[in-house]
Protein backbone atom coordinates (compact mmCIF):
# COMPACT_ATOMS: atom_id res chain seq x y z
CA UNK A 1 0.00 0.00 0.00
CA UNK A 2 1.37 3.41 -1.02
CA UNK A 3 1.76 5.78 1.92
CA UNK A 4 0.71 9.39 1.43
CA UNK A 5 2.80 12.40 2.40
CA UNK A 6 1.61 14.98 -0.14
CA UNK A 7 -1.58 15.90 -1.93
CA UNK A 8 -2.31 18.16 -4.89
CA UNK A 9 -4.97 20.79 -4.26
CA UNK A 10 -7.55 22.02 -6.78
CA UNK A 11 -5.14 24.73 -7.95
CA UNK A 12 -2.48 22.16 -8.77
CA UNK A 13 -0.26 22.98 -5.79
CA UNK A 14 1.64 20.11 -4.19
CA UNK A 15 1.25 20.35 -0.41
CA UNK A 16 2.38 18.24 2.49
CA UNK A 17 -0.58 16.93 4.48
CA UNK A 18 0.04 19.34 7.35
CA UNK A 19 0.21 22.23 4.87
CA UNK A 20 -3.08 21.06 3.37
CA UNK A 21 -4.66 20.88 6.84
CA UNK A 22 -3.48 24.44 7.60
CA UNK A 23 -4.34 25.85 4.17
CA UNK A 24 -6.54 28.92 4.53
CA UNK A 25 -9.28 27.41 2.39
CA UNK A 26 -9.26 24.31 4.61
CA UNK A 27 -9.52 26.21 7.91
CA UNK A 28 -12.24 28.49 6.48
CA UNK A 29 -14.18 25.39 5.42
CA UNK A 30 -13.54 23.89 8.88
CA UNK A 31 -14.94 27.03 10.55
CA UNK A 32 -18.08 26.89 8.38
CA UNK A 33 -18.64 23.22 9.24
CA UNK A 34 -18.02 23.71 12.97
CA UNK A 35 -20.52 26.59 13.26
CA UNK A 36 -23.28 24.91 11.24
CA UNK A 37 -26.52 25.04 13.27
CA UNK A 38 -24.52 26.54 16.20
CA UNK A 39 -23.83 30.09 15.04
CA UNK A 40 -25.60 31.76 17.97
CA UNK A 41 -23.83 29.82 20.71
CA UNK A 42 -21.64 31.96 22.93
CA UNK A 43 -18.29 30.33 22.08
CA UNK A 44 -19.09 30.53 18.35
CA UNK A 45 -19.99 34.22 18.60
CA UNK A 46 -16.77 34.96 20.50
CA UNK A 47 -14.70 33.17 17.86
CA UNK A 48 -16.58 34.83 15.00
CA UNK A 49 -16.00 38.33 16.41
CA UNK A 50 -12.27 37.97 15.61
CA UNK A 51 -12.61 35.24 12.99
CA UNK A 52 -9.69 36.20 10.73
CA UNK A 53 -7.30 36.51 13.66
CA UNK A 54 -8.48 33.21 15.17
CA UNK A 55 -8.23 31.32 11.87
CA UNK A 56 -4.70 32.64 11.39
CA UNK A 57 -3.87 31.36 14.87
CA UNK A 58 -5.32 27.95 13.92
CA UNK A 59 -3.13 27.89 10.80
CA UNK A 60 0.03 28.89 12.66
CA UNK A 61 -0.50 26.41 15.50
CA UNK A 62 -1.03 23.56 13.03
CA UNK A 63 1.98 24.47 10.88
CA UNK A 64 4.22 25.02 13.91
CA UNK A 65 2.87 21.95 15.75
CA UNK A 66 2.20 24.21 18.73
CA UNK A 67 -1.51 23.33 18.93
CA UNK A 68 -2.47 21.84 22.29
CA UNK A 69 -6.00 20.45 22.75
CA UNK A 70 -8.13 22.21 25.38
CA UNK A 71 -9.79 20.66 28.40
CA UNK A 72 -12.94 18.63 27.83
CA UNK A 73 -16.38 19.50 29.07
CA UNK A 74 -18.09 16.35 30.39
CA UNK A 75 -21.79 15.58 30.28
CA UNK A 76 -24.03 12.55 29.88
CA UNK A 77 -26.72 11.65 27.38
CA UNK A 78 -29.28 8.99 28.18
CA UNK A 79 -30.84 8.19 24.80
CA UNK A 80 -30.65 5.63 23.32
CA UNK A 81 -28.42 4.55 26.21
CA UNK A 82 -26.35 6.29 28.89
CA UNK A 83 -23.06 7.59 27.52
CA UNK A 84 -20.50 10.11 28.74
CA UNK A 85 -19.78 12.77 26.13
CA UNK A 86 -16.51 14.70 26.13
CA UNK A 87 -16.86 17.99 24.25
CA UNK A 88 -14.11 20.42 23.24
CA UNK A 89 -14.44 24.21 22.81
CA UNK A 90 -15.27 25.68 19.39
CA UNK A 91 -11.63 26.54 18.60
CA UNK A 92 -10.65 22.86 18.91
CA UNK A 93 -13.58 21.76 16.80
CA UNK A 94 -12.33 24.02 14.00
CA UNK A 95 -8.91 22.32 14.24
CA UNK A 96 -10.51 18.87 14.12
CA UNK A 97 -12.64 19.77 11.10
CA UNK A 98 -9.49 21.00 9.34
CA UNK A 99 -7.80 17.66 10.04
CA UNK A 100 -10.85 15.73 8.82
CA UNK A 101 -11.03 17.82 5.64
CA UNK A 102 -7.73 16.28 4.54
CA UNK A 103 -7.72 12.83 6.18
CA UNK A 104 -11.29 11.76 5.44
CA UNK A 105 -10.97 11.66 1.61
CA UNK A 106 -7.70 9.73 1.91
CA UNK A 107 -9.20 6.97 4.06
CA UNK A 108 -12.69 7.01 2.54
CA UNK A 109 -11.56 5.31 -0.67
CA UNK A 110 -9.97 2.51 1.39
CA UNK A 111 -13.09 1.58 3.37
CA UNK A 112 -15.33 -1.28 2.27
CA UNK A 113 -18.65 -0.37 0.65
CA UNK A 114 -20.80 -1.80 3.46
CA UNK A 115 -19.30 0.26 6.27
CA UNK A 116 -22.07 2.75 7.01
CA UNK A 117 -21.24 4.98 9.99
CA UNK A 118 -20.13 8.62 9.64
CA UNK A 119 -19.63 8.48 5.88
CA UNK A 120 -21.10 10.56 3.09
CA UNK A 121 -24.14 8.96 1.42
CA UNK A 122 -24.18 6.18 4.04
CA UNK A 123 -25.73 6.27 7.53
CA UNK A 124 -28.08 4.15 9.59
CA UNK A 125 -31.00 4.27 7.16
CA UNK A 126 -28.81 3.08 4.29
CA UNK A 127 -27.53 0.27 6.53
CA UNK A 128 -31.13 -0.68 7.36
CA UNK A 129 -32.12 -0.63 3.69
CA UNK A 130 -29.25 -2.98 2.84
CA UNK A 131 -30.17 -5.51 5.50
CA UNK A 132 -33.83 -5.45 4.51
CA UNK A 133 -32.95 -5.97 0.83
CA UNK A 134 -30.71 -8.92 1.66
CA UNK A 135 -33.46 -10.57 3.72
CA UNK A 136 -36.08 -9.90 1.04
CA UNK A 137 -33.93 -11.32 -1.77
CA UNK A 138 -33.13 -14.46 0.22
CA UNK A 139 -36.78 -15.17 1.04
CA UNK A 140 -37.82 -14.49 -2.56
CA UNK A 141 -35.33 -16.90 -4.14
CA UNK A 142 -34.91 -19.41 -1.27
CA UNK A 143 -38.31 -19.49 0.49
CA UNK A 144 -37.73 -22.92 2.02
CA UNK A 145 -34.17 -22.36 3.30
CA UNK A 146 -33.68 -20.48 6.56
CA UNK A 147 -31.19 -17.62 6.79
CA UNK A 148 -29.11 -17.12 9.94
CA UNK A 149 -27.26 -14.06 11.24
CA UNK A 150 -24.45 -13.08 13.54
CA UNK A 151 -25.60 -9.98 15.40
CA UNK A 152 -22.59 -8.52 17.21
CA UNK A 153 -21.08 -5.39 18.64
CA UNK A 154 -17.82 -4.46 20.35
CA UNK A 155 -17.79 -4.29 24.14
CA UNK A 156 -17.15 -0.66 25.26
CA UNK A 157 -15.73 0.15 21.87
CA UNK A 158 -14.63 3.79 22.06
CA UNK A 159 -13.04 3.49 25.50
CA UNK A 160 -11.26 0.26 24.47
CA UNK A 161 -9.46 1.54 21.35
CA UNK A 162 -5.73 1.03 21.81
CA UNK A 163 -3.67 4.07 20.85
CA UNK A 164 -0.66 2.13 19.59
CA UNK A 165 -2.83 -0.02 17.33
CA UNK A 166 -4.71 3.02 16.02
CA UNK A 167 -1.49 4.92 15.32
CA UNK A 168 -0.04 1.89 13.51
CA UNK A 169 -3.12 1.64 11.27
CA UNK A 170 -2.92 5.35 10.43
CA UNK A 171 0.81 5.04 9.66
CA UNK A 172 0.06 2.36 7.08
CA UNK A 173 -1.51 5.15 5.01
CA UNK A 174 -0.01 8.47 6.19
CA UNK A 175 3.72 9.27 6.10
CA UNK A 176 3.85 13.05 6.65
CA UNK A 177 5.69 13.26 9.99
CA UNK A 178 4.17 16.62 10.97
CA UNK A 179 0.65 15.46 10.20
CA UNK A 180 1.26 12.32 12.24
CA UNK A 181 2.53 14.38 15.18
CA UNK A 182 -0.66 16.46 15.08
CA UNK A 183 -2.85 13.35 14.83
CA UNK A 184 -0.99 11.77 17.76
CA UNK A 185 -1.77 14.80 19.93
CA UNK A 186 -5.47 14.39 19.19
CA UNK A 187 -5.38 10.64 19.93
CA UNK A 188 -3.43 10.99 23.18
CA UNK A 189 -5.72 13.74 24.52
CA UNK A 190 -8.26 11.27 25.94
CA UNK A 191 -9.37 13.06 29.08
CA UNK A 192 -10.02 10.88 32.11
CA UNK A 193 -9.50 7.56 30.32
CA UNK A 194 -6.38 5.49 31.09
CA UNK A 195 -3.21 6.45 29.22
CA UNK A 196 -2.85 4.68 25.91
CA UNK A 197 -6.51 3.65 25.64
CA UNK A 198 -9.77 5.19 24.50
CA UNK A 199 -10.96 8.01 22.27
CA UNK A 200 -13.72 10.46 23.27
CA UNK A 201 -17.19 9.88 21.86
CA UNK A 202 -17.72 13.63 21.40
CA UNK A 203 -14.68 14.31 19.19
CA UNK A 204 -15.25 14.79 15.48
CA UNK A 205 -11.99 12.98 14.69
CA UNK A 206 -13.11 10.03 16.83
CA UNK A 207 -15.70 9.12 14.20
CA UNK A 208 -12.99 8.80 11.53
CA UNK A 209 -10.54 7.07 13.90
CA UNK A 210 -13.23 4.55 14.87
CA UNK A 211 -13.76 3.61 11.22
CA UNK A 212 -10.01 3.38 10.58
CA UNK A 213 -9.60 1.07 13.58
CA UNK A 214 -12.28 -1.40 12.47
CA UNK A 215 -11.40 -1.26 8.76
CA UNK A 216 -8.94 -4.05 9.51
CA UNK A 217 -11.80 -6.16 10.88
CA UNK A 218 -13.98 -5.34 7.86
CA UNK A 219 -11.34 -6.59 5.45
CA UNK A 220 -10.64 -9.69 7.52
CA UNK A 221 -14.32 -10.66 7.49
CA UNK A 222 -14.84 -9.82 3.81
CA UNK A 223 -11.57 -10.99 2.28
CA UNK A 224 -10.13 -13.62 4.62
CA UNK A 225 -13.31 -15.26 5.91
CA UNK A 226 -15.15 -14.58 2.65
CA UNK A 227 -18.41 -13.32 4.20
CA UNK A 228 -20.47 -11.96 1.32
CA UNK A 229 -23.30 -10.42 3.31
CA UNK A 230 -21.50 -8.40 5.99
CA UNK A 231 -22.24 -4.83 7.04
CA UNK A 232 -21.13 -2.62 9.90
CA UNK A 233 -22.50 0.54 11.51
CA UNK A 234 -19.82 1.88 13.88
CA UNK A 235 -19.19 -1.04 16.28
CA UNK A 236 -22.39 -2.98 15.44
CA UNK A 237 -22.23 -5.52 12.64
CA UNK A 238 -24.33 -8.17 10.94
CA UNK A 239 -23.24 -11.25 8.95
CA UNK A 240 -25.80 -13.37 7.08
CA UNK A 241 -25.39 -16.97 5.95
CA UNK A 242 -27.71 -19.96 5.41
CA UNK A 243 -24.98 -22.13 6.99
CA UNK A 244 -25.26 -21.88 10.78
CA UNK A 245 -22.11 -23.92 11.36
CA UNK A 246 -20.17 -21.57 9.09
CA UNK A 247 -21.35 -18.64 11.19
CA UNK A 248 -20.20 -20.41 14.36
CA UNK A 249 -16.73 -20.89 12.86
CA UNK A 250 -16.61 -17.30 11.67
CA UNK A 251 -17.68 -16.00 15.06
CA UNK A 252 -14.87 -17.90 16.79
CA UNK A 253 -12.38 -16.56 14.23
CA UNK A 254 -13.66 -13.00 14.67
CA UNK A 255 -13.36 -13.21 18.46
CA UNK A 256 -9.75 -14.40 18.12
CA UNK A 257 -8.92 -11.73 15.52
CA UNK A 258 -10.36 -8.93 17.66
CA UNK A 259 -8.49 -10.12 20.73
CA UNK A 260 -5.12 -10.65 19.04
CA UNK A 261 -5.07 -7.91 16.41
CA UNK A 262 -7.21 -5.08 17.81
CA UNK A 263 -7.23 -5.79 21.59
CA UNK A 264 -11.03 -5.75 21.66
CA UNK A 265 -13.77 -8.06 22.89
CA UNK A 266 -17.25 -8.74 21.58
CA UNK A 267 -20.22 -7.81 23.70
CA UNK A 268 -21.42 -10.87 25.66
CA UNK A 269 -24.88 -10.33 24.09
CA UNK A 270 -23.51 -11.27 20.65
CA UNK A 271 -25.72 -14.02 19.17
CA UNK A 272 -26.37 -16.21 16.16
CA UNK A 273 -30.08 -16.09 15.39
CA UNK A 274 -32.62 -17.16 12.79
CA UNK A 275 -33.43 -14.22 10.53
CA UNK A 276 -37.13 -15.09 10.23
CA UNK A 277 -37.53 -14.12 13.90
CA UNK A 278 -36.33 -10.59 13.10
CA UNK A 279 -32.95 -8.88 13.35
CA UNK A 280 -32.44 -5.81 15.54
CA UNK A 281 -30.04 -3.41 13.82
CA UNK A 282 -29.61 0.40 13.69
CA UNK A 283 -32.84 1.04 15.58
CA UNK A 284 -35.20 -1.25 13.67
CA UNK A 285 -36.46 -4.83 13.81
CA UNK A 286 -35.89 -6.23 10.31
CA UNK A 287 -37.74 -9.00 8.55
CA UNK A 288 -37.84 -9.91 4.88
CA UNK A 289 -41.17 -8.20 4.21
CA UNK A 290 -41.11 -5.27 6.62
CA UNK A 291 -39.30 -3.46 9.42
CA UNK A 292 -40.64 -2.10 12.67
CA UNK A 293 -39.44 0.44 15.19
CA UNK A 294 -37.76 -1.33 18.07
CA UNK A 295 -39.87 -1.54 21.26
CA UNK A 296 -37.19 0.20 23.35
CA UNK A 297 -37.36 3.20 20.99
CA UNK A 298 -41.13 3.41 21.54
CA UNK A 299 -40.63 3.22 25.30
CA UNK A 300 -38.04 6.02 25.17
CA UNK A 301 -40.28 8.46 23.29
CA UNK A 302 -43.17 7.70 25.67
CA UNK A 303 -40.83 8.41 28.61
CA UNK A 304 -39.92 11.73 26.97
CA UNK A 305 -43.61 12.68 26.82
CA UNK A 306 -43.96 11.75 30.51
CA UNK A 307 -40.93 13.91 31.35
CA UNK A 308 -42.64 16.85 29.70
CA UNK A 309 -45.82 16.22 31.69
CA UNK A 310 -43.76 16.22 34.90
CA UNK A 311 -42.13 19.50 33.91
CA UNK A 312 -38.68 17.97 33.49
CA UNK A 313 -38.23 19.17 29.91
CA UNK A 314 -39.58 22.17 27.97
CA UNK A 315 -42.23 22.14 25.28
CA UNK A 316 -39.55 23.05 22.73
CA UNK A 317 -37.44 20.04 23.74
CA UNK A 318 -40.48 17.77 23.53
CA UNK A 319 -41.29 19.00 20.04
CA UNK A 320 -37.70 18.48 18.90
CA UNK A 321 -37.74 14.93 20.31
CA UNK A 322 -41.05 14.13 18.60
CA UNK A 323 -39.79 15.49 15.27
CA UNK A 324 -36.58 13.48 15.53
CA UNK A 325 -38.35 10.27 16.57
CA UNK A 326 -41.05 10.50 13.88
CA UNK A 327 -38.33 11.11 11.29
CA UNK A 328 -36.58 7.93 12.42
CA UNK A 329 -39.83 5.94 12.69
CA UNK A 330 -40.85 7.12 9.22
CA UNK A 331 -38.29 4.76 7.71
CA UNK A 332 -40.18 1.81 9.21
CA UNK A 333 -43.70 0.47 8.74
CA UNK A 334 -45.11 2.71 11.44
CA UNK A 335 -47.87 5.00 10.15
CA UNK A 336 -50.39 4.17 12.88
CA UNK A 337 -47.70 4.18 15.57
CA UNK A 338 -46.50 7.64 14.52
CA UNK A 339 -50.06 9.00 14.59
CA UNK A 340 -50.50 7.56 18.08
CA UNK A 341 -47.27 9.10 19.42
CA UNK A 342 -48.02 12.50 17.84
CA UNK A 343 -51.49 12.46 19.44
CA UNK A 344 -50.01 11.51 22.84
CA UNK A 345 -47.61 14.46 22.63
CA UNK A 346 -50.35 16.85 21.51
CA UNK A 347 -52.65 15.73 24.33
CA UNK A 348 -49.85 16.21 26.85
CA UNK A 349 -49.26 19.75 25.61
CA UNK A 350 -52.98 20.56 25.77
CA UNK A 351 -53.19 19.30 29.35
CA UNK A 352 -50.13 21.31 30.32
CA UNK A 353 -51.60 24.45 28.75
CA UNK A 354 -54.98 23.91 30.43
CA UNK A 355 -53.29 23.51 33.81
CA UNK A 356 -51.59 26.90 33.58
CA UNK A 357 -52.92 29.81 35.64
CA UNK A 358 -54.79 32.44 33.64
CA UNK A 359 -52.41 34.94 32.04
CA UNK A 360 -49.41 32.61 32.07
CA UNK A 361 -47.15 32.46 29.00
CA UNK A 362 -47.81 30.07 26.17
CA UNK A 363 -44.46 28.25 26.32
CA UNK A 364 -43.94 25.41 28.78
UniProtKB/TrEMBL annotation:
InterPro entries: DNA/RNA_pol_sf, GrpII_Intron_Splice-Mob/Def, RT_dom. Residues 56-286 form the Reverse transcriptase domain. This is Group II intron-encoded protein LtrA. It comes from Acetatifactor muris. Pfam families: RVT_1.
